[in-house]
Amino acid sequence: MHTQHGTFQTPVFMPVGTQATVKAVTPENLIEMNAQIILGNTYHLYIRPGHELIKQFGGLHEFMHWDRPILTDSGGFQIFSLKELAKITERGATFRSHLDGSKLFLGPEEAVQIQEALGSDIMMCLDTCIPYPATRDETIKATDLTSRWARRCREAQTDTGQLLFGIVQGGMFPDLRQEHALALIDIGFDGYAIGGLSVGEDKSLMQEMTEAVIPHLPVEYPRYLMGVGTPEDLVEGVYRGVDMFDCVMPTRNARNGTLFTSTGKITIKNARFRDDKAPLDANCSCYTCRNYSRAYLRHLFQCREILSYHLNTIHNLHYYLNLMAEMRAAIERDQFSAFRNDFYGRLACE
Amino acid sequence: MHTQHGTFQTPVFMPVGTQATVKAVTPENLIEMNAQIILGNTYHLYIRPGHELIKQFGGLHEFMHWDRPILTDSGGFQIFSLKELAKITERGATFRSHLDGSKLFLGPEEAVQIQEALGSDIMMCLDTCIPYPATRDETIKATDLTSRWARRCREAQTDTGQLLFGIVQGGMFPDLRQEHALALIDIGFDGYAIGGLSVGEDKSLMQEMTEAVIPHLPVEYPRYLMGVGTPEDLVEGVYRGVDMFDCVMPTRNARNGTLFTSTGKITIKNARFRDDKAPLDANCSCYTCRNYSRAYLRHLFQCREILSYHLNTIHNLHYYLNLMAEMRAAIERDQFSAFRNDFYGRLACE
């Protein structure tokens, strides 16, 4: 897909860069592991250091020293996750900063304006977050509001050359999901996301909802499953036609010492790694696996050394990005099903 | 100076790698900034992960992925810094682990044995730490014990090809310092350190003690001022003939957001850097200064991002290592005095 800052190839995983940085790694580390696009969190950047400041620096790319594509979320998800509940009206969301408690407002127009100031390549519409579980009536209400906000986002866009994606809601009701997809297509966006999943529902329900939406999204536009997920979720998402993913899991798990390998997850603090000379994953070509033993990584983690977070994050992100590259190659060879079987076969070995 | 893992050129600054890592940077980062040799803390490695484990891995170089020279301290300084005082006898020091309270013993023979297991290039003799202030009698007693321990260290060495440095004590008494230097030379070491300074005394007293010792140390052996210091201390040390330094200051200050520049120190959290587009130091060629603004570094520090510690550490270590390289070049041009004047002139500009 083409953006202002270059192209990226789908299916793609976007490392999350909350505070104008993907935690614990440099842009050069991300480039070495072939990260094609990252995600910036609008809420966090709006609160600190502020979108106007970032605009003064020529945008988020320049500010954080990253010249490949960036997708920004709308800020909605973080606002709805705040401890003190946001107040939602037709106009938008009123909420309090988690930093200093100041009262703030974010409507569809503001979400676009902030993302235009950040200068991301792909902006996301402001959507409402539907709690799980929710009744059909609640879901219809919130989804309809999301449609009206989506239209207002599209209308608020100015001529910056940035792309804008719509977000399909509809809760856990397949017919509402389909209906909403069509409503968004009617407005017309540069890509379509599936929102409101991975919110506590069963995996099977998440997959059912994905299946309900995907066939109704136009194939010539990217399809983005937001906030997902585990390696298995990525494989299942791609299997169902998803093109884009983002998740904090690889970076957050890395900092907690949970590391992904081709044969399953490792808890690095485990005593059995005390004198283990092997790399994290014998099949991995990342900087960490090329140069360090499990025993050394365990030692760094036990000491809470900053280098532990750095090396673990490099490995986990490399694992995710490599998984996407493998899926891309399998699709090109028209052997995705075989790849999917292999993937589960390797996991079962552990 | 030649060691098993290559040579290093003096005067040299050794970044401190407490836990088998120089905090917040990779070995490749250290190589990019031309670090020639690093220091490992024997006490910390002895406590965790243990010298025997590191020996199993072929030594500290292999374990931490660093193939340039390493100097290890004896562990004495950390033991004497423990909250619960170590008990010193002729045989050595009995102390409790700061991690689990277990009772441990370190004598001269053990200090050598542990450092041989670590496989460092340069080992340090176990010395006693003289409190400041101390009476002449206390100082004589502790210094004499240090001499006897130094001889036992030399005798305990096996045929590993590692170098062993003696440590000159003598407190704040110039004649005792001189006397002790001669006593150590009489035993014969591969290099000589000045210990027991930077312990709370005035700068002028530290310089006086350095001046008291240096002329008595053989010029063909490296002279090492332990645990020192500020950039000014390094310049004054080199001016007085010191060849080697180590200090946690550049790395610790980096993590606290205090950054060294050619015109003085910067506190990066200061509000005046909020929208400052300039690099930390316009005269610096480090990775951080080449790619990031003060405003971005302030933002990362405010967010307590791990990348903040990484980028700040790269800059501060680069500053220290570059200062040493400049002094080396000035000495080679026979213009050290001019360099020293310039150095203070630049600082005065701020």
Task: Give structural notes.
The structure is a homodimer of 350-residue chains. With 350 residues, chain A is α/β, with parallel strands linked by helices. Chain A folds into 2 domains: 2-247, TIM Barrel, CATH 3.20.20.105; 254-349, no CATH class. Helix content of chain A is 45%, strand content 15%. Chain A has 15 helices and 15 strands. The first copy, chain A, has an 8-stranded parallel beta barrel, surrounded by 5 helices. In chain A, helix 10 packs parallel to helix 14. The longest helix of chain A has 27 residues, at 306-332. The radius of gyration of chain A is 20 Å and the shape is globular. Chains A and B meet through helix 13 and helix 14 of A and helix 13 and helix 14 of B.
Topology:
Two copies of one chain form a homodimer.
Chain A: E1 2-3, E2 6-7, E3 12-17, H1 27-32, E4 38-40, H2 42-47, H3 51-56, H4 60-64, E5 70-72, H5 76-80, E6 87-88, E7 93-96, E8 103-106, H6 108-118, E9 122-124, H7 136-156, E10 163-168, H8 174-187, E11 191-194, H9 203-213, E12 223-225, H10 231-239, E13 244-247, H11 249-255, E14 258-261, E15 264-267, H12 287-291, H13 294-302, H14 306-332, H15 336-349
Parallel strand pairs in A: 3-4, 3-13, 4-5, 5-9, 9-10, 10-11, 11-12, 12-13
Antiparallel strand pairs in A: 1-2, 6-7, 7-8, 14-15
